[in-house]
Amino acid sequence: MIYDANAFIGKWPYWPVWSSTPEExxxxxxxxxxxxxxxxxxxxxxxxxxxxxxxxxxxICKQPDRLTGFACLGTLELSHAxxxxxxxxxxxxxxxxxxxxxxxxHHSYHPLYQSFVDTILEEAxxxxxxxxxxxRIIMNWGMPTLDLSVMEGLVNRHPRVVWILSGxxxxxxxxxxxxxxxxxxxxxxxxxxxxGYAAVVKLVQQCGAQQILFGSGAPIQHGAAxxxxxxxxxISESDREAILSSNLCRLLKNG
Amino acid sequence: MIVDGHVxxxxxxxxxxxxxxxxxxxxxxxxxxxxxxxxxLTALFYDMHEGNRLLYVEMQKFPDRILGYASLHSTRFxxxxxxEIKRCRHDYGMHGLKIYxxxxxxxxxxxxxxxxxxxxxxxxxxxxxxxxxxxEFLLSAVPDVQFIMAHAGGQPFAHGDWNRAIMxxxxxxxxxxxxxxxxxxxxxxxxxxxxxxxxxxxFGTDMxxxxxxxxxxxxxxxxxxxxxxxxxxxxxxxxxxxxxx
Lengths: 255, 245
Hints:
The complex is a heterodimer of chains A (255) and B (245). Chain A has a single domain (3-252), classed as Metal-dependent hydrolases (TIM Barrel), CATH 3.20.20.140. Helix content of chain A is 43%, strand content 15%. Chain A contains eleven helices and eight strands. In chain A, α8 runs parallel beside α9 (199-207). Chain A is globular. By secondary structure, chain B is of the alpha/beta class. Chain B has one domain: TIM Barrel. Chain B has helices at residues 21-31, 41-45, 48-61, 78-90, 113-122, 132-141, 162-171, 188-196, 212-220, 226-241; strands at 3-12, 17-19, 35-40, 66-72, 96-100, 126-129, 147-149, 175-178, 201-202. Chain B has a nine-stranded mixed sheet, sandwiched between helices. The termini of chain B are close together. The mean pLDDT of chain B is 96. The A-B interface holds A 14-19, 138-143, 169-171, 193-200, 217-229, 231-232 and B 15-16, 154-156, 158-161, 163, 182-188, 191, 207-218, 221.
């Protein structure tokens, strides 16, 4: 089985992308031999996080064997005119979500100085709920990025959280991820934006395979190209299988 | 035949690269790539004479596999740069020019014009690490030069904006787009071909900075005709360089 730790449903505002509905996305993933994917809706990132979560929830209810939902949590709107959204991670788990994603670079907050982030992370740690934190949403230099030191600060402040670092590309970014993974067994890295030469081999050599998760960034990014980094890497078959599937299954406790 | 139009050789601590021709050819063999078009990192970032000479040595070791780009580290060396391009063309048998542009020292300036004119005269395509806006400036000045936008906008200084790169290429028929970049967006290569035609797109990997496999797959796993695929995967760069397959 191939299990993708970072895919999306929903529309892409920057340029046309061929697949957006859950059905289109799973069809495209199947074309690339990706059996299952952890998703959130791009509506959560670009419009309203809870509206997007409703889309994600509907998608995972409809295709529970293909899609795993991550709830995207963000800031409250300034007027507080809308009903207060819940930051209780347990509520999202009860609705069928299996993880949380944060996109501070798209939601106009500083994660080290907003108390709701600590609230979410403390509860996620106590529940063993994975939290995906992206440096950037996909590997495109035009996308807003989180400062590396902010990522480092948040991970170090909450070392018990099951982290999935995302959006890491190469050079110093990869070095930080490696340092954090070597320091904390709770830190994992998904590969959708990892583009450096022999980077997957380097990751396995320096950290072992247990903390590496295959991620595609599909359908915005090319699934087969993302997969090729893992399939062509000079690593053992057991390490490859761990990266492609069993590590994420273990984190999500649905293996 | 697959030709990689964008490969680096030599050393750069900043980019964490130290490779010779043998290592690159071994990688190319694994990937099924027949020829690699190389630029030397010393020439690109430090000393053009030293770096281009080093590349020439590697080209002699693998004459059927390594095609050379002469590289310049700046537009601002006047006649010395022009002489170096001629030396690389005539003495070293290099077929193109590579140059790097940064926001701090953009090549979109008048000092670049004689370089463009010389490359046009020598029929050397220029692979330039530039933004779409820089390409527009340069091609407006010297429209008949064959110009390849390295990374097709998919680099930090161009904000990853490959859509903008396509728009620039629509305005200038001599502007070609190189597929090598950190971007593996689903629509990237196919949109380039749909808008510009396959003859304007050049496959590259940017190895050994980038993992070449996603670069190869994003160009191969497409719905192109076999004829288009042949152009993208090598025909175009060989034609621009005047090299027979």
